[in-house]
Amino acid sequence: MRRLDQLLSSLGYCSRREAAAVVKAGRVKQDGVVLKKAEQKVEAARITLDDEPLEAPEGLLVVLHKPLGYVCTHADGEGPTIYELLPPRWMGRNPGVTSIGRLDKDTSGLLLITDIGPLVQRYTSPRAEVEKVYEVTVDKPLVPELVEIFAQGTLLLRGEEKPCLPAQLSLTSEFTASLTIQEGRYHQVRRMFASQGRHVTALHRARFGPYVLTDLPPGQWRWVPLPED
Ligand code: URA
Predict the structure, then answer these.
(1) pTM, 2 dp
(2) Which domains does the chain have, with CATH numbers?
(3) How far is Cα 197 from Cα 192, in angstroms, rounded to an integer?
(4) Is 104 in the pocket of ligand 1 (CB under 6 A)?
(5) For site-directed labelling of 100, which of 112, 122, 130, 176 has its Cα 20 to 30 A away?
């Protein structure tokens, strides 16, 4: 049970102060019955606002197809942000909405967006070892030996002492490959290929753990179920 005004403001519908007017206007119901007091305790799942259920009161999780050119920060000045692609009301949610990990400005593909803190920790912790699949295009021909080099778990990135975990590389053409990694180091995919003299010219994430993009167009998002455990 939560206070109604606190519930509406935490979901980004209005400020706590504005909630009093929203309630007074008869827009909020519990089990179809109009509520009168913004201070009363309610069960989120039974509440409607303007006859619509409240949006994801237990926390939201969506998959976004990040387009090229968008940045994953909240800060202005570096170009359009992924947050501009989401409903403006979500920016008023508390806890705040954030991406689970980041993609570079010039990387496209699957990004999970949530306001569930433990989910962010679970998926971004170095011990998480969540599989991510990237489609990679490089500037120089790829050779089969790279498959073994990436699989060995001995690849050192410039400036780092700990080798990368084994990664699965599958060559799809002379200049393209699919790479599966379980870590999320800074610019990891670009740096892995750079260590082998290849410059990544295009990078796209197709999968993150159990989540895939399928036919979601760039710039669009869709709801996905919360993980079961
Ligand atoms: N690896 C990179 O180099 N960039 C990304 O955006 C994601 C993984």
Answers:
(1) 0.94
(2) 2-53 (3.10.290.10), 61-125+218-223 (3.30.70.580), 132-208 (3.30.70.1560)
(3) 9
(4) yes
(5) 176
